[in-house]
Amino acid sequence: MTSLLSSRLSGVRQVSLEAESDTEKERVDKWLRDLPVSANQEVYLYWHVGDGVAAVTNWSTFLEVWDDLWYPFDRLCVSDETRQWAVLFGPEEQAVLIERNGRSP
Question: Minimal CA–CA distance to 70: which of 52, 94, 42?
Answer without folding.
Answer: 94
